[in-house]
Protein backbone atom coordinates (compact mmCIF):
# COMPACT_ATOMS: atom_id res chain seq x y z
CA UNK A 1 0.00 0.00 0.00
CA UNK A 2 2.83 2.39 0.84
CA UNK A 3 4.57 1.67 -2.45
CA UNK A 4 1.39 2.34 -4.49
CA UNK A 5 0.65 5.61 -2.66
CA UNK A 6 4.20 6.94 -3.16
CA UNK A 7 4.13 5.94 -6.86
CA UNK A 8 0.82 7.74 -7.41
CA UNK A 9 1.91 10.80 -5.46
CA UNK A 10 5.03 11.02 -7.66
CA UNK A 11 2.92 10.63 -10.80
CA UNK A 12 0.33 13.26 -9.88
CA UNK A 13 2.54 16.35 -10.39
CA UNK A 14 3.60 15.05 -13.81
CA UNK A 15 -0.05 14.59 -14.86
CA UNK A 16 -0.93 18.08 -13.68
CA UNK A 17 2.00 19.54 -15.62
CA UNK A 18 1.10 17.64 -18.82
CA UNK A 19 -2.54 18.74 -18.54
CA UNK A 20 -1.45 22.34 -18.10
CA UNK A 21 0.88 22.07 -21.11
CA UNK A 22 -1.93 20.63 -23.29
CA UNK A 23 -4.28 23.44 -22.23
CA UNK A 24 -1.65 26.07 -22.96
CA UNK A 25 -0.96 24.63 -26.43
CA UNK A 26 -4.65 24.43 -27.38
CA UNK A 27 -5.21 27.99 -26.12
CA UNK A 28 -2.31 29.28 -28.21
CA UNK A 29 -3.75 27.60 -31.34
CA UNK A 30 -7.23 28.99 -30.61
CA UNK A 31 -5.90 32.54 -30.30
CA UNK A 32 -5.02 32.53 -34.01
CA UNK A 33 -8.56 31.61 -35.01
CA UNK A 34 -11.77 33.58 -35.00
CA UNK A 35 -15.29 32.31 -34.41
CA UNK A 36 -16.75 30.58 -37.46
CA UNK A 37 -19.85 32.79 -37.52
CA UNK A 38 -17.60 35.85 -37.88
CA UNK A 39 -15.43 34.15 -40.53
CA UNK A 40 -18.49 33.16 -42.58
CA UNK A 41 -20.05 36.60 -42.27
CA UNK A 42 -16.78 38.24 -43.39
CA UNK A 43 -16.53 35.90 -46.40
CA UNK A 44 -20.16 36.63 -47.31
CA UNK A 45 -19.45 40.38 -47.08
CA UNK A 46 -16.48 39.89 -49.41
CA UNK A 47 -18.73 38.10 -51.92
CA UNK A 48 -21.12 41.05 -51.80
CA UNK A 49 -18.25 43.52 -52.26
CA UNK A 50 -17.04 41.50 -55.28
CA UNK A 51 -20.60 41.66 -56.75
CA UNK A 52 -21.08 37.91 -56.43
CA UNK A 53 -24.10 36.11 -55.05
CA UNK A 54 -24.00 35.68 -51.30
CA UNK A 55 -25.10 32.69 -49.27
CA UNK A 56 -28.44 32.97 -47.52
CA UNK A 57 -27.94 30.48 -44.70
CA UNK A 58 -24.78 31.45 -42.83
CA UNK A 59 -25.76 29.31 -39.81
CA UNK A 60 -25.72 26.07 -41.84
CA UNK A 61 -22.27 26.88 -43.23
CA UNK A 62 -20.99 27.64 -39.70
CA UNK A 63 -22.30 24.26 -38.54
CA UNK A 64 -20.63 22.52 -41.51
CA UNK A 65 -17.29 24.24 -40.81
CA UNK A 66 -17.38 23.25 -37.16
CA UNK A 67 -18.09 19.63 -38.16
CA UNK A 68 -15.15 19.66 -40.58
CA UNK A 69 -12.89 21.23 -37.93
CA UNK A 70 -13.88 18.59 -35.39
CA UNK A 71 -14.12 15.42 -37.50
CA UNK A 72 -12.29 16.19 -40.79
CA UNK A 73 -15.22 14.58 -42.64
CA UNK A 74 -18.50 15.84 -44.05
CA UNK A 75 -21.76 15.11 -42.24
CA UNK A 76 -23.74 12.03 -43.32
CA UNK A 77 -26.12 13.96 -45.58
CA UNK A 78 -23.29 14.38 -48.13
CA UNK A 79 -22.56 11.82 -50.83
CA UNK A 80 -20.11 11.94 -53.72
CA UNK A 81 -21.25 12.31 -57.31
CA UNK A 82 -20.01 8.78 -58.08
CA UNK A 83 -22.03 7.30 -55.21
CA UNK A 84 -25.15 9.21 -56.28
CA UNK A 85 -24.79 7.98 -59.87
CA UNK A 86 -24.36 4.38 -58.68
CA UNK A 87 -27.62 4.77 -56.77
CA UNK A 88 -29.44 5.89 -59.91
CA UNK A 89 -29.06 9.68 -60.12
CA UNK A 90 -28.52 10.91 -63.69
CA UNK A 91 -25.66 13.25 -62.80
CA UNK A 92 -27.49 16.12 -64.43
CA UNK A 93 -27.66 19.13 -62.11
CA UNK A 94 -31.20 19.78 -63.43
CA UNK A 95 -32.37 16.48 -61.91
CA UNK A 96 -33.10 16.23 -58.22
CA UNK A 97 -31.07 13.78 -56.16
CA UNK A 98 -34.22 13.24 -54.13
CA UNK A 99 -35.98 11.46 -57.01
CA UNK A 100 -33.85 8.47 -56.02
CA UNK A 101 -35.25 7.10 -52.77
CA UNK A 102 -31.88 6.29 -51.13
CA UNK A 103 -30.66 9.82 -51.91
CA UNK A 104 -33.58 11.57 -50.20
CA UNK A 105 -32.32 14.50 -48.08
CA UNK A 106 -28.77 14.05 -49.46
CA UNK A 107 -26.43 16.65 -50.99
CA UNK A 108 -23.35 16.31 -53.17
CA UNK A 109 -20.07 16.63 -51.28
CA UNK A 110 -16.66 15.04 -51.07
CA UNK A 111 -15.77 15.27 -54.76
CA UNK A 112 -12.16 16.14 -55.52
CA UNK A 113 -11.47 19.58 -57.05
CA UNK A 114 -8.41 21.42 -58.32
CA UNK A 115 -7.70 24.98 -57.25
CA UNK A 116 -4.84 27.34 -58.17
CA UNK A 117 -3.79 27.67 -54.51
CA UNK A 118 -3.25 23.91 -54.29
CA UNK A 119 0.19 22.81 -53.14
CA UNK A 120 1.84 19.53 -54.08
CA UNK A 121 0.32 16.64 -52.14
CA UNK A 122 -2.76 18.59 -51.04
CA UNK A 123 -6.20 17.31 -51.83
CA UNK A 124 -9.16 19.68 -52.08
CA UNK A 125 -12.84 18.77 -52.05
CA UNK A 126 -16.14 20.52 -52.56
CA UNK A 127 -19.47 20.40 -50.76
CA UNK A 128 -22.73 21.81 -52.08
CA UNK A 129 -24.36 24.57 -50.09
CA UNK A 130 -28.01 25.59 -50.10
CA UNK A 131 -29.33 22.80 -52.30
CA UNK A 132 -33.09 23.03 -52.71
CA UNK A 133 -35.19 19.83 -52.75
CA UNK A 134 -32.26 17.82 -54.05
CA UNK A 135 -31.35 20.26 -56.81
CA UNK A 136 -27.77 21.45 -56.78
CA UNK A 137 -27.00 25.13 -56.43
CA UNK A 138 -23.90 26.93 -57.69
CA UNK A 139 -22.76 27.52 -54.09
CA UNK A 140 -19.85 25.43 -52.82
CA UNK A 141 -17.54 25.10 -49.86
CA UNK A 142 -14.02 24.19 -51.00
CA UNK A 143 -11.98 22.52 -48.25
CA UNK A 144 -8.85 20.50 -47.60
CA UNK A 145 -8.16 18.30 -44.57
CA UNK A 146 -4.57 19.63 -44.68
CA UNK A 147 -5.59 23.28 -44.21
CA UNK A 148 -7.74 25.22 -41.78
CA UNK A 149 -8.63 27.88 -44.35
CA UNK A 150 -11.60 27.11 -46.55
CA UNK A 151 -13.01 28.78 -49.64
CA UNK A 152 -16.54 29.84 -50.44
CA UNK A 153 -17.80 30.02 -54.01
CA UNK A 154 -21.24 30.97 -55.21
CA UNK A 155 -20.56 30.40 -58.91
CA UNK A 156 -19.49 26.74 -59.11
CA UNK A 157 -15.89 27.51 -58.10
CA UNK A 158 -15.29 30.01 -60.92
CA UNK A 159 -14.27 32.54 -58.28
CA UNK A 160 -14.00 32.18 -54.53
CA UNK A 161 -13.28 34.02 -51.31
CA UNK A 162 -11.36 32.71 -48.35
CA UNK A 163 -13.02 31.74 -45.11
CA UNK A 164 -10.43 32.32 -42.39
CA UNK A 165 -9.46 29.50 -40.04
CA UNK A 166 -12.12 29.43 -37.36
CA UNK A 167 -13.40 27.69 -34.26
TrEMBL record:
<feature type="signal peptide">
    <location>
        <begin position="1"/>
        <end position="30"/>
    </location>
</feature>
<protein>
    <submittedName>
        <fullName>Ribonuclease</fullName>
    </submittedName>
</protein>
<keyword id="KW-0732">Signal</keyword>
Amino acid sequence: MTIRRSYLSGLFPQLVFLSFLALLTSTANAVDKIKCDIAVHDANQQLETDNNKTINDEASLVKLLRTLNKDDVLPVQYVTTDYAKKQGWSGNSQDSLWKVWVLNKKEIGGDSVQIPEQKSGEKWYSADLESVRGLRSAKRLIYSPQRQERYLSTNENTSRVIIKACI
